[in-house]
Design brief:
Layout (H helix, E strand, L loop, with lengths): L1 H7 L4 H10 L4 E4 L3 E4 L7 E7 L2 E6 L5 E7 L4 E2 L2 H4 L7 E4 L3 E7 H10 L3 H22 L5 H10 L12 H8 L3 H14 L16
Antiparallel strand pairs: 1-8, 2-7, 3-6, 3-8, 4-5, 4-7
């Protein structure tokens, strides 16, 4: 985690030592898909994702779950709802097999009081994620099979169908139908533009 923070902006070693002590025993493993925060919940923690994924979603106009953001390994999930201590507008979930380290808002306030420069670091982390979101919005403008290919090139750990995120969630993120997602993915597997993870184990792939 500290290497990720250092890559954003170099900090005093004392900050990392302090965070190491604060977060020493603050980690959670989610063996199965788990809702962390529902809309309206107070967001008490920011997360560093050591393994797996966190997702952010909302309800679409027709009542279906609409996946909005995917946070992956080595990313920090600390949005305005955490910073401002406002109720969550979104559903925040961990996928099965996810491990996160976390820091509470009270602990973060203590960090700011001791290390005022951490304010800038937090702002840079949020800006970094906003840039990633902007890049993803550009990808979502792509049409047809190239959209599906670009998505899986961005998130290769999601390639195996249904292993991490359901097709329903991925199709909602891409704003295409489940059937079209599967059609394009099958074509990408068939042409070798995507490699099905099961191939290395000699298993058959049907989607």
């Amino acid at each position: 985690m500290f290497g990720i923070l250092e890559s954003v902006k170099s900090q005093r070693p004392e900050l990392y030592q302090y965070l190491k002590q604060v977060m020493k025993y603050q980690g959670t493993f989610y063996p199965k898909a788990t809702v962390i925060y529902k809309p309206g919940d107070q967001v008490h923690c920011a997360f560093f994702i050591s393994e797996g994924f966190l997702t952010r979603s909302t309800k679409s106009e027709d009542g279906r779950q609409q996946l909005l953001s995917i946070f992956e390994e080595n990313e920090i999930k600390a949005g305005p709802d955490f910073m401002q201590q406002s109720p969550s507008e979104f559903l925040i979930e961990a996928t099965a097999g996810t491990f996160v380290a976390y820091i509470t808002h009270a602990q973060m306030k203590a960090v700011y009081s001791i290390f005022p420069e951490a304010h800038e670091l937090a702002s840079l982390i949020i800006s970094q994620h906003n840039r990633k979101e902007a890049q993803m919005r550009k990808i979502l403008l792509i049409k047809g099979i190239q959209l599906v290919e670009s998505f899986y090139k961005c998130y290769p750990k999601l390639i195996e169908p249904g292993s991490v995120l359901s097709d329903e969630k991925i199709s909602s993120f891409l704003k295409i139908s489940v059937s079209l997602l599967r059609e394009h993915r099958s074509a990408l597997f068939a042409t070798g533009r995507l490699i099905h993870p099961a191939k290395k184990y000699g298993k058959s792939s049907d989607r």
